[in-house]
Amino acid sequence: MNVTITPSSVGGTARAPPSKSYTHRAILAAGYADGATVRDALWSADTQATARAVELFGGDVDRREDGTLEIDGFDGRPAVPADVIDCANSGTTMRLVTAAAALADGTSVLTGDESLRSRPQGPLLEALSDLGAEADSTRGNGQAPLVVTGPLAGGELSIPGDVSSQYITALLLAGAVTDEGIAIDLETELKSAPYVDITLEVLADFGVEARKTETGFAVDGRQSYRPAGGDYAVPGDFSSISYPLAAGAIAGSEDEGVRIEGAQPSAQGDSAIVDIVERMGADVEWDRDAGTIDVAKAPLSGIEVDVEDTPDLLPTIATLGAVADGDTHITNAEHVRYKETDRVSAMAEELGKLGVETTEERDSLTVHGGESSLSGATVSGCDDHRIIMALALAGLVADGQTTVEGADHVDVSFPGFFGMLEELGVGLERTD
Questions:
Q1: Which of 57, 209, 216, 427 is 20 to 30 A from 294 (CA-CA)?
Q2: Active site members
Q3: Which residues make up the binding site for phosphoenolpyruvate (predicted)?
Q4: Is 20 within any annotated ligand binding site?
């Protein structure tokens, strides 16, 4: 599907979809339990991949009409899957499920689409091997397809922290049900650290104790996953909140701004987008108790933003920088190249088609908003949900229509994204 955006002003109320990061962890945590109810879950292409994995491990995921997930778990002992685990385009699924597969008393095979088969898994495979499992890449390059044979008992390991925080999350989730527990020694500084904070929060909500140590993280073994009252509620997603927030900042109508609901505080590092938009000059008010954010359009100025802990915000920040006066310098961004696509290069190239000047370096992206004039064009979504949504925002203020190709990939994290834009007053057309 392609979507053509007509320059538009936006106004009204948008509701944040549930957090993808929390939903992944909650579905798998409920799988590790003997069962749990997960409320307000995001049901997207990515989270469905995690649900399918839970079922292949012997659990069952039943989605009710109201979106609630009733999950029968495998109680800490995943069965050997009867089929290959297809993680589709979900890197989170592959990493979290790879560690779960190492608990099974037998062999599991994991794969995904072309993009996922190019993403690095080597450090996690080495960590699982250090713990006594057999974990290999079929091509010997540290990328999927993966073959994992367990079970592992737990123990100590060292792993780099600057490739993906998801490795740490996967090991902590699995470590709680091992015999010995798992102690993780970080070899390098941890990137995207707030995502591990999310993991610790979800583990605590499921009754599992894990902790930070002087050199990394640790979780004791032989624990049970039991959420209080048998259920867990997923909070709103700040990665997704970044899009209506940015839309209001760059294209809010004169009569009304944009109100975003479902923005309760949590451990999500991407809540930093509220401060970023405010620093750039937008009029922002966040009522943390009510979980609402109000944003109004204002002249924006370029700033410097470190995305070491918030890699998913880079596409949104780049679009804001394209509209702002002056330069927006996005730093500590090398790990953003190892997402669904190389998001640093993708944003530089696609914004360039819209007339935006950028300077790309290995670890940074500078957007020269003061030297740019946004003009409508046809751009590629690069099969990446965050690139698609960020480019759609640019189309709100470009001179002329902007067509985003491959726009259906928003289903990965925000299936209702374009419907939300229409409700805010955006003129758009979908074509096959």
A1: 427
A2: 312
A3: 20, 91, 119, 166, 343, 386
A4: yes
